[in-house]
TrEMBL record:
Species of origin: Streptomyces sp. 900129855
Keyword Nucleotide-binding: yes
Keywords, ordered alphabetically: ATP-binding, Nucleotide-binding
Domain ATP-grasp, chain residue ranges per copy: 97-288
The organism's place on the tree of life at top rank: Bacteria
Protein name: ATP-grasp domain-containing protein
Length: 291
């Protein structure tokens, strides 16, 4: 019997928001595995006792990125980790967008402002500021040029916390076409979803935001699939990828481009796509048998 760890985080005192976890556990148990939901930072877990450790909903990792990537490396030294520790480390810092762009993958144009950099912000178009280590729109906000002083205060707050900022043009295509998430599992396209824009004008960067507003199933276009596959092909050491989510928006030319590449802990939205559960379980079982 394969032993599989489905790794999450401890949300106490709030209830867990991971709707996929109980569905996955049940599907894996029906397939003959022993599947445990475990917290990534639980010091009492014997990771070596598992045939496969699958990162699923470690949704506090961006606050503790160094600690999390060190944990991933430690686990990878004693058993198989999905996704691999090197991929986790690479994807945990959104400066990977620059590498994708350099590889010819269509991406949202991105600049980076480290703590010692001046507040070089756009003066002629709406833009977004967010951290290179973040999830769920944490510390993300959109600004018009006349909101420069407010954006500078956000930068100062982030830099005081040691965070590097990303500056991107606000992509107007999100307002019309939303953001599309293409999910891959076991090397194959699993399903896709679409959500509305997350960042409303005037919403404070430190306000709580709805990460997936208006989520609905989506049938991806051939152009979207092609861009997603190009992005995944550009990932260093991608041979061990078990899962991936490619988030796409329409650029100024109307063509899809990468907003983010989620290889650490993407929500699979199985509640929206129950037909995908058997394929996910089968891919996890296959991965567990390759140790």
């Amino acid at each position: 019997m394969a032993r599989i760890a489905l790794v999450t985080y401890d949300p106490r005192p709030e209830p867990s928001r991971d709707r996929d976890l109980p569905v996955l556990r049940a599907a894996l148990e029906r397939a003959g595995a022993e599947a445990d939901g475990v917290f990534w930072d639980d010091p009492d877990v014997d990771w070596a006792s598992y045939d496969l450790v699958v990162i699923r909903s470690t949704w506090d990792y961006s606050w503790r990125a160094d600690e999390f990537t060190a944990w991933a490396q430690k686990v990878a030294e004693v058993t198989r980790l999905a996704n691999p520790a090197a991929v986790v480390r690479w994807n945990a810092d959104k400066r990977y967008l620059g590498e994708l762009a350099a590889a010819g993958v269509p991406t949202v144009p991105t600049r980076y402002l480290a703590p010692d950099d001046p507040a070089d912000l756009p003066a002629d178009h709406e833009y977004v500021v967010k951290p290179t280590s973040g999830a769920g729109a944490r510390y993300a906000a959109r600004y018009t040029p006349d909101q420069h002083e407010t954006a500078v205060r956000q930068l100062a707050r982030m830099h005081d916390e040691g965070l590097t900022a990303m500056v991107q043009p606000y992509v107007r295509g999100i307002d019309a076409g939303g953001e599309r998430a293409l999910q891959f599992f076991g090397g194959r396209l699993l399903h896709a979803s679409r959500k509305r824009a997350v960042l409303a004008p005037g919403t404070a960067y430190d306000a709580q935001k709805v990460a997936h507003p208006g989520l609905e199933p989506w049938v991806p276009t051939p152009a979207e699939i092609a861009v997603a596959e190009r992005a995944l092909a550009a990932v260093p050491d991608a041979s061990g990828l078990l899962y991936a989510r490619v988030d796409l928006v329409d650029g100024d030319d109307g063509q899809p481009c990468v907003m983010e590449l989620e290889l650490v802990e993407p929500n699979l939205f199985l509640f929206l796509h129950p037909e995908s559960v058997p394929a996910v379980a089968a891919a996890i079982m296959a991965a567990a048998g390759t140790r």
